Amino acid sequence: MTGLLLLCLLLLCEGQRSSSCPHLCSCHGGLVNCSSRSLTSSSLPTSFPAGTTELRLDTNLLTTLPNGLLDNLTPLSSVSLHGNPWSCDCGVLYLRAWLLRRPAGLTSHLGVNCSSPPSLRGRLVVYLTEEEVLESCHYWYCDLAWASQVCLFVFVVVQVVLLVALIVFLRRFERLTKEARRTKEESFTAGEDPRENEYSLMKDSSI
What is the topology classification, in CATH, of domain 17-128? Predict the structure, then answer.
């Protein structure tokens, strides 16, 4: 009984969460207005009410849309996305695919232009080819690969320096050990009783 009650409460909270208006946005019926709120891709709401029919995200600072953000908004008939500095690298693939799935009569793609990279600046996102997008991704991967190689090179150099320092230290330690052993032997020899040496010589001569 308690478990059933908890399940009902969770479903009720989830329903209220899905129908609530996102922070920094205003809602009126099926209209969710988030335009001109200086929203970035990180501050963008993670979900919108399930009954949203018109969504305005224009005139913000969006560079990408999170994967799956608009997939569950089945009643959605109008989206405003213009006026954002879209970055046409790997992160734009979801937005491009979503725009391509929109009916041909809708104008959601209007004003959705690339701001970067420079080679694609001004291009409509919906008309980009996969090859163009993936080519822009390669630059990012190349930069990452180059940075990784530099870090690996620095790591190897540090390891070599440490190894050389260890070898030098061991050799110096070995040399000092030999000198200490030789000094000890010399001091031991110098400290022997002269009479014992004389007795040893007389014994050897008598033989």
Answer: 3.80.10
